[in-house]
Specification:
Layout: H1 12-23, H2 25-28, E1 38-44, H3 51-54, H4 65-70, E2 72-78, H5 86-95, H6 99-102, E3 108-111, E4 116-119, E5 122-129, E6 138-140, H7 150-157, E7 164-168, H8 172-178, E8 184-188, E9 195-198, H9 207-214, E10 225-227, E11 233-236, H10 250-253, H11 258-274, E12 284-290, H12 292-300, H13 305-328, E13 334-339, H14 348-353, E14 359-360, H15 363-378, E15 385-389, E16 392-395, H16 397-401, H17 409-422, E17 427-430, H18 431-435, H19 443-449, E18 459-463, E19 468-469, H20 482-485, E20 486-492, E21 499-501, H21 508-518, H22 543-551
Helix pairs in contact: 5-8, 5-21, 11-13, 12-13, 15-17
């Protein structure tokens, strides 16, 4: 820093104080001059909010404890919406808005024009890019988002100088965080484990990704045993057949073990190195969506020894990655945030041992019962529900139009909702009701109001009973209950005041807080708040009066 000429004769202590004030994080944080150099957001798929406390005493010093002991940790962070799925969760975190703002209502939805289910990031105008991937159908893009993201605002503010990347095993967990203007989103080919992308971002893979795939990094994770810290074998990555009888791929076999996180973080390190993140003239953003927790959690539930071991292993893996960031970029130059896209229900068979009213439901049989009730009502047999992603039902416009009454959308949805109640759901909200804002002025009503999207044709969001999931084996998520909505939210970096905060927080606050600190606009549809309680206290410089006192003639009044 160059001091004003008048300060060259000022007392040494005053000069030292001024230099310290100018170096304080709140005084200098700005995306425009790369302070910090890099923001890393880690989103752990299906990582419930209670896990950090449940396993806290088993964590080492350099992983999760970076957030717990040296970061700003919010214990009471809940999604304020009902459709707690992966795609809506990732979209929420980075747009700072709920489904009613960003439009991503589910991982997949019924497309009435195509007459089939489509994914949240599917884009027929693009193609996959990677080893043999271009032959496997359409690529992916963020075109379904109705709001921009934190990364988009970072790009806008810095005239494109900021670099924005997102990676995950899943396409939706990479594409939606990367936003419209991300430099790239990378995910894996489910069979081979090779990293791929879409022509939305680039026509071919960069050389470093081709070299990563070409070195067969995925192969070393096959034929390995997963053991916990006591030496107990919890799983194996030996080749096996999948549900369809064909050889299971990387995603299915290795994806549900800690080895998948090792693989993702290896790729993340290479991305930081070869894309030179943290070395530019503006702040860069890297989003890492760790998927293994979700793939395993659906199978074994949140209370299993496998999930405990997964969390403890991830703690070690994160410590190694943070060490890499410290060596490569310097932790004084890095801000980090930690959260999750949703939680998960207890495994029903375990919950029932504690006398909770839990159940595994057969969604296919439930859909058949609802169609039977509607067929009886209309005296015409048809598939009125073309799909049921419990508790979200997608309706056939053609089937309802073909009834004697020629049902309109609002009437058809109401009839379907009543049939869903007769079939056992606790209640429902129709798309038409949500579009008109017809929800009760209660916390539950607000959560369903936040779950509205204009996408997906006609639909009804059923209200399930607690501890009931719509699959016959394992467990699931997509409810407004705390086990699905409660997720971690934590920050680390010079701008944050370390501590445990039990104030109200929501995932929509993440993008808004980071945007404010970086000096950029929040995403267009953002509704979150700046978590001011977790920020370093403002430093009001007394430099002007001190300068005057130090330089004024004797006897002068400042």
């Amino acid at each position: 820093m160059r001091l004003p000429r008048s300060l060259h004769t000022a007392p040494p202590l005053l000069c030292s104080t001024l230099l310290l004030l100018c170096s304080l994080p709140n005084a200098s944080a700005s995306a425009y001059n790369a302070r910090p150099k890099l923001v890393v957001v880690i989103v752990i798929d299906q990582f419930r909010g209670d896990y950090l406390e449940r396993y806290r005493d088993q964590f080492g010093d350099g992983g999760f404890r970076v957030f717990l002991d040296r970061g700003a940790y919010f214990t009471e962070c809940n999604y304020d919406y009902a459709n707690t799925r992966t795609a809506p969760g990732h979209a929420t975190l980075f747009t700072g808005s709920y489904v009613s703002g960003h439009g991503i209502v589910a991982n997949e939805w019924w497309d009435p024009q195509k007459r089939k289910r489509v994914t949240s990031v599917e884009d027929d105008n693009t193609r996959l890019v990677g080893t043999g991937a271009g032959k496997n159908g359409p690529g992916a893009s963020p075109r379904n988002l109705l709001s921009d993201t934190l990364g988009d605002e970072l790009k806008l503010a810095t005239a494109g100088k900021a670099r924005v990347f997102a990676i995950s095993l899943k396409d939706r967990a990479a594409v939606l965080p990367a936003g419209f203007s991300g430099d790239a989103a990378y995910w894996i080919d489910p069979k081979s484990g090779d990293w791929i992308t879409s022509t939305y971002y680039r026509p071919d893979l960069p050389e470093w990704v081709r070299n990563f795939n070409g070195s067969h990094r995925a192969q070393k994770f096959w034929n390995r045993e997963w053991k916990d810290s006591d030496g107990n074998t919890l799983g194996s990555t030996a080749p096996r057949n999948g549900k369809d009888g064909t050889p299971a791929g990387f995603y299915e076999v290795i994806g549900s073990t800690p080895f998948a996180d090792d693989y993702q973080l290896e790729f993340a390190k290479e991305l930081v190195l070869y894309e030179k993140l943290g070395a530019g003239s503006a702040t860069d953003l890297l989003v890492i969506g760790l998927s293994a927790n979700d793939i395993l959690g659906h199978q074994v539930g949140p209370d299993s020894p496998q999930m405990r071991s997964m969390a403890v292993e991830l703690d070690r893996q994160l410590a190694d990655f943070f060490g890499f960031l410290g060596h490569q970029v310097g932790m004084a130059n890095v801000w980090m945030a930690l959260s999750a896209d949703h939680g998960v229900a207890p495994l029903p068979e375990f919950a029932k041992t504690l006398r909770l009213p839990a159940a595994n439901l057969d969604a296919r049989a439930l859909r058949g019962r609802i169609n039977s009730l509607l067929s009886k009502k209309y005296a015409k047999k048809a598939d009125y529900l073309v799909d049921l992603d419990y508790p979200l039902a997608w309706l056939s416009e053609d089937a309802f139009a073909g009834t004697a009454a020629g049902k309109k959308e609002s009437d058809a949805e109401a009839d379907a909702g009543e049939a869903m109640k007769q079939a056992g759901l606790a209640g429902y909200f129709t798309k038409s009701q949500l579009a008109r804002g017809e929800t009760p002025a209660t916390e539950v009503g607000r959560r369903y109001s936040h779950s509205y999207s204009p996408k997906g044709g006609w639909y009804v969001i059923g209200i399930p009973s607690p501890f009931q999931v719509g699959i016959t084996k394992g467990t699931d998520h997509e409810t407004p209950f705390s086990y699905d909505t409660h997720v971690p939210l934590a920050f680390y970096g010079l701008a944050f005041q370390p501590g445990t905060y039990r104030t109200h927080a929501e995932p929509v606050d993440l993008a808004v807080t980071l945007a404010s600190l970086l000096g950029i606009n929040a995403p267009a549809e953002a509704t979150g708040r700046v978590l001011t309680e977790a920020l370093q206290p403002p430093h009001r410089s007394t430099a002007p009066s001190a300068i005057q006192s130090a330089t004024a003639p004797a006897g002068a009044t400042p």
